[in-house]
Amino acid sequence: MAGQDPALSTSHPFYDVARHGILQVAGDDRFGRRVVTFSCCRMPPSHELDHQRLLEYLKYTLDQYVENDYTIVYFHYGLNSRNKPSLGWLQSAYKEFDRKDGDLTMWPRLVSNSKLKRSSHLSLPKYKKNLKALYVVHPTSFIKVLWNILKPLISHKFGKKVIYFNYLSELHEHLKYDQLVIPPEVLRYDEKLQSLHEGRTPPPTKTPPPRPPLPTQQFGVSLQYLKDKNQGELIPPVLRFTVTYLREKGLRTEGLFRRSASVQTVREIQRLYNQGKPVNFDDYGDIHIPAVILKTFLRELPQPLLTFQAYEQILGITSLPLAPLELSREPHALPGVESSLRVTGCRQILRSLPEHNYVVLRYLMGFLHAVSRESIFNKMNSSNLACVFGLNLIWPSQGVSSLSALVPLNMFTELLIEYYEKIFSTPEAPGEHGLAPWEQGSRAAPLQEAVPRTQATGLTKPTLPPSPLMAARRRL
């Protein structure tokens, strides 16, 4: 089965790369040469994979076999804009394998390995000389264009070793096919190509199985996973670090959360977090970077913070009528206990959330409420923040949100920010379950501990310029 080797240990020097199953050693070819496969479909998005580490891991793996003749099978299917390395990396990788014997300048991590120390006096393995064949399976026009770009750098002798195969069946003549480790995604793609070639209807596409995350993974994993890996801490580290930094240094930054950041920088920071390494936002000199990281963290959760189950309920928030007191009050005045049916509706929806999601949501909304209090400086009132965060907090389980869904989604988010204290307050009287049952009694302690900064500041309702939501109320 393709994927991670079940015998792979977390103590492996390249576990962060090896766990993806990109490289596999797959028996011998028909000439008795060891076969190594490289599967592009196993490469995660670039921000989850350090390509320099991938290069080092490739050399680390080949070093075990290249003293003798060997063959590489390259499965091109699955390489896309999200996971493909840069052209510069490909050029440097080729040059690295073209280094002359004895050049160990690029091997500081590998030479630290005791096994390699013992053999460091030897010359570098003959990566290119002992490579007898490079089989490229399912080549595309991208491969051909890339080959033309790199052609000036590639020797004629090496070029003769490259052979293209459009179908897996063509490998039978050269390899012991049953020994190959071929990812299921590649098998399905090949079957689809064969079907199209023969005029048959291609089989339905299946989603590949998920890969095991790193123990230190922060992005793209569930809240439960983060809790289990962080000694039961309810607030994910990335969320806490970014919120803390922005509270201290960014509350009055104009356009906070509206500005973008370099994709390369964002991926670099994600990679550092996923590998358990420290991140110092001061090093980047841009207050908008932690803001982008916070939004990216929310957007890459496997399930939205507000959960798939709450999606339809939230869409119905606009169907709730406005109570008389809400129609007549001033835009900046807090509603009375029963003045806003929509605020009450928000509380009822939040009661259905899992405890962990509720705690994290309250922590985040407390921060966004504090940001909105500084809107005279940062120009980000609750309405503007809702436009930014709405689709990062909730999305449908299938497809994407329609344009018509944006109004209720953003309105719901604006209500959470604008009336943070009302919606997330404790019950006003016995029997009124303003909070979910799991927040009552002894189990409320984690909730109280999750937002010490917000409680300590004694936040009150800010005086803000009228938002679109307020304007709508006044028109009604």
> Taking Cα atoms only, what radius of gyration do you get, to the nearest Å?
28 Å
Largest sheet: 5 strands, mixed
- Order of strands across the biggest sheet? 1-2-3-4-5
Low-confidence stretches: 100-125, 323-339, 428-466, 468-476
| Chain-averaged pLDDT | 76
Name the beta content range: 5-15%
Distance between the termini: 62 Å
Search tags:
476 residues; alpha/beta; 5-stranded mixed sheet; 5 strands; elongated
Explain what the structure shows:
With 476 residues, this protein is of the alpha/beta class. Helices cover 43% and strands 6% of the residues. The chain has helices at 15-18, 51-62, 87-97, 108-111, 114-119, 141-150, 156-159, 184-198, 223-229, 237-249, 263-274, 288-299, 311-315, 324-328, 341-350, 355-373, 375-378, 382-393, 403-418, 420-423, 445-450, 452-457, 468-475, and strands at residues 23-28, 34-39, 70-75, 131-137, 162-165. The protein has a 5-stranded mixed sheet, with helices on one face. Helix 10 (237-249) runs antiparallel to helix 12 (288-299) and helix 12 (288-299) crosses helix 18. The chain is elongated. The protein starts with 14 loop residues before the first helix and ends with a helix.
